[in-house]
Amino acid sequence: MASKHIHIVFAHPNHGSFNGRMLDVAIETLTSLGHVVTVSDLCEMGFNPVIGKEDFRGHDPQEDVTREQKKLALADLVIFQFPLYTLGYPAILKGYFDRVMTEGYSFELPSKIYDDALLKGKRAVLSFTTGSKRDYYGEKGIMGDINVILWPLQNGGLRFNGFDVLAPNVVYGLDAHLDSQKALDVWRRRLERIFDEQPLLFHRNTDFVDNKLKDEVVEEMKGSYSRTVGQHCGKSLPPGSQTDVVCREETDK
To answer: What SUPFAM superfamilies does the record point to (predicted)?
Structure first.
């Protein structure tokens, strides 16, 4: 495989944490395969997550934002490594999306969004840990279905800006019951073949007219499942639509 450029955005205050070990595994594995790897350690950098009026269009981009945008511009794949906090991005990572993924850089309203956005052609994957076990995030779990939780993170943070979104790497329940070495090995093996993966399924821009799904697209959906979590069309939510690509076949049966 030809050498690729991978940029990792790391959002954890402690490099000695399990998230830090996940970061180290990613760097070691990808560089051993001949890829170029760069890292933005947001906490160590002291990245300012608070958006201000100077971050909006019409003002000169701030130096820290420009620096991050240049890193993303070079990347074939972007990995976001973080702990899930209150069912979302840590504040510093949410601020990264707010300040770095800006109009004119990653998207252009009204038409250059999603598969026509300015970062199209690049891949992205969320790699994160949770404080609770896997069954907490099932369709009957107390935290809610992980596919529903992931929709705003992946559709809003990634796909809106043009990324092809790969299935997330989720490590559940970092406690005594977790075999941490096994989780690291799974991540290592996946990274070795990550450029062979198919992205998750999202509706194409051409499926919409006046910002709503076309009637014929809705009629094409067979069975009891919708194709995506966000555009559920009154059907049951597609199983695994934000965590794997199985639903590509399942939702159209």
So the answer is: Flavoproteins
